[in-house]
User: Fold Neutral zinc metallopeptidase from Fodinibacter luteus.
Amino acid sequence: MSFNDNVTLDTSQVRSGGGGGAPGGMVVGGGIGGIIMLILAMIFGINPGDITGGGTTTEPGQVQAGGEQGSEAFAACRTGADANENTECRVIGTVNSVQAFWAGELPRYGKEWQPTQTVLYRGTTQSACGTASNQVGPFYCPLDKMVYIDADFFRILEQQFGSSAGPLAQEYVVAHEYGHALQDQLGLLGRAQQDPQGPESGAVRVELMADCLGGVWAHHATTVPDEDTGQPFLEPLTDQDIRDALSAASAVGDDSIQQKTQGRVTPENWTHGSAEARQRWFLQGFKTGDLNQCDTFAVASVN
Ligand SMILES: [Zn+2]
Assistant:
């Protein structure tokens, strides 16, 4: 359990995609997309070589992204009960919850949330930042302002990276990506590009901030109501839920991934932060529920 059974899911916030990609018409935006891809796409620290070596079409051309609007593709996702049963429905419910939260929260800071769609795909799909696939992991693309999540990613997260399969592990991933969308709206994403790697780099600080923003959402998710029913999206979080989220945060720490993929840890190449730091910043957001406590640029050391 995680979602309140009766909340209604709004599938219009999610598009489908994937199945290998249609021939023609789907052209990636070129070099800048590739660069942003390297820095921002590896939300879960997949080796950049996997992205550049992935056969991505990089001819300049028309940017076209996203797939079908979700109402038909995700017709089976109607309620919180569906979100408790089915991974895709859980992504949709989390997208709904996270957006409802930021839409309500940002006006306190004189800002307005810009609705941000998720492309929930299988196989591969095209984004304005390049080809999305499970080699890349979930990411936020600032060029088309959409979140890309491979429906099979959570299985990879469990089986290859050792995360728990609990619902909040998955929900944390979605909330982290929406943290990037918020950073984009606040003009903070560029700081990752200016200083792309190293344990105290801008990239790592941007990533850890997104973890913290995910924690802020988790803090409030049990109180943010669904517009239709007035019920919060999520049931009260248990210690096990939090352990699940921390397990995902730990699994995708740069040191965890480097140890698995290259057999040693090289902090100078970090782009997302250590397993310990990712958990700590998620908890910082979760415990305080306060956006202002997520300013990873205000501290001397984030790791
Ligand atoms: Zn990220």
The radius of gyration is 18 Å. The chain has a mean pLDDT of 83.
